[in-house]
Amino acid sequence: MNDGIEELLIQVGLQNAHWDWQSERVVKIETQDGLFALKRWEQTPQEREHFLHHLRYAERAGMKGIIPLTNRRGDMSMFETNRHYFYLEPWVEEQPLMSPPPKELRLLTILALNHKISEDEEDMTEDELSTYKNEVQQGWQQDQLLMNRLADQFEQSRFLSPFELTFLNGYPFYEMMFGEMKKGFQKWARQVKEKEGYRFAFCHGRPSLEHGLIAADGNAWFTNWETSGPGHPAYDLAYFYQDLACHYPFDPLESKQLFGTYEAHGPSWGEADTGLLKALMLTPAPILAFAQAYATEPLRYAEHQWTAMLESKLSSLRYLLQMMQWKEKQEAAMQSS
Hints:
This protein is α+β, with helices and mostly antiparallel strands. It has 11 helices and 10 strands.
C-alpha cells in the first residue's frame, strides 16, 4: 500500500514529499508549498462522478467552507492506484478557539449560508409524494418490527441483564418517538401536497463536529463532502443536531442558540420544515441498531459498558426531543401573536 502512495505522489507532482497516514483513509503530506491531505475513497464510478459534479456546482455557486480539491494544476480530479481512488486537497489544521462563537455555531452558520445560497424548489406530483410516503412508512415499519422483536427476545430472558432492563424500560419512549416522527412528517407532506412541490438545497450529507474544522483565521470548513448533493435542509440539520446531542448529552447548547443561528443566516423556515426536521431527528433507529448489536454479539463489550452506552444514546434522544418541543412552542407562540 505504501508503494502505491509513492506512485500516486509522483502522479500529482509531490514526489519526494514527506507523508504519513493519519487514519485508515487520510494521508498527510508535507511539502515546501504547504500541507496537503490525500484521501482514499472507495465508491462506484457513478458515485465518484456525482461527487466531482457536486463540488464543481458548489464552487460555481460560491458555497462556503468547502476545502477545494486540487491536482496541483487547479482543477478537480481523482487519482487512481491499482487498488484505490484518492483525491487531494489542502490540509487545514484545526486550531483552538480563543473567542466566541463556539465551533458548533460557526459550523452551523456555514450550513445555513450554503442552504440559503442554493435554495430552490421542484415540482412533486401527488403520485410521487405518495410513493415517497410509502417508502418512508415502510422504513418505519421495519424499525418498529425490529423494536418489537428485540423486546420479545429480551423479555424471554430468565434474568434480565442491566442492558435488557434499560432497553425495555425505554420501550414506551421509543413508541412515543415513532408517533412524534409520524406527526412531523405528515405536517411536511401536507404542505408538499398543497404546493405541489418541495424545497431543496445543496447539502453536505453528513455534517458533524468531526467533519468540521476551524482554521487559524477563525474560518470554518467542512471536510468529507462525498455524500453531498440536493436535499431538504432538514436532512443536514438533523444529522448535525444528532451529532451534537451525542457530544453534549448532559451539557447541551441552548436550543435558542442553535435554531437562532441557523435562521439568522439560512433560508426561510416554516412549521412544515420543522415537521420534517422532527421526523428525521427523533428516530430511535440508532438505539435499535445498538440493541441488535448487543443481542448478536453481547461479549464485544462488558455489560456495564453496553448499558452505559445505551443510556447515553437515550439521553441524546431525550435532548433532541426537548429541542423540538422548544421549537414547536416558539412557533405556536409566534402564530398566536
